[in-house]
Design goal:
Radius of gyration: 18 Å
Shape: globular
Largest sheet: 4 strands, parallel
Number of domains: 1
Oligomer: single chain
Structural class: alpha/beta
Number of strands: 4
Helix content: 40-55%
Distance between the termini: 34 Å
Length: 174
């Protein structure tokens, strides 16, 4: 059994991890909101599923957020009435799948709006966690320190614990 002091320390560490993670998530939400403002329809692919929890909590005023749950037919059914209006809807479709493996199921939405996914160009459409984390952590760590943060070469992503440790280290050194 943990002592009261150990339990309190774990709670503080958990709270810090949540703050650090939401720092990165909040940074990601800003460009998504901007793309909705500019293009109205955003298809957000997340092939590694690193943003699943964030996407579940994502909300934007006057915007429909549809989340893929295994059926592209269901998404089409859910948003079909929105697409019959004269003006395109404010819509974000989150798909925790690789775009290349969807058989172009959302091509009509992609053409009508924009795609955000890891590695997407221009950079404002790139949702690769390493890039988003580095940019989000600049405010905590500073430009040079955040730019020095690198993911292991074996990994295409920074893990959430890595992001949390980087943010915590930066916050302690300031």
């Amino acid at each position: 059994m943990l002592s009261a002091e150990s339990q309190a320390q774990r709670l503080l560490e958990k709270e810090q991890w949540i703050k650090d993670t939401w720092c990165v998530t909040g940074y990601l939400f800003q460009p998504i909101a901007k793309q909705v403002e500019d293009h109205r329809i955003v298809i957000w692919y997340d092939p590694e599923g690193v943003y699943t929890a964030a996407a579940a909590a994502f909300e934007l005023p006057n915007t429909t957020v549809a989340r893929y749950d295994g059926s592209f037919f269901q998404i089409q059914h859910d948003i079909d009435s929105l697409l019959n209006e004269a003006q395109p809807p404010r819509l974000v479709v989150y798909v925790p799948e690789d775009r290349e493996k969807t058989d172009h199921a959302l091509i009509e939405l992609e053409v009508a709006g924009i795609v955000m996914q890891p590695g997407q160009q221009p950079p404002t459409h790139n949702t690769r966690l390493a890039i988003v984390a580095r940019n989000a952590l600049k405010s905590i760590l500073g430009d040079e320190t955040a730019a020095d943060r690198r993911c292991p070469k074996k990994s295409s992503l920074c893990s959430r614990p890595m992001v949390s440790r980087a943010a915590s280290a930066g916050a302690k050194s300031r």
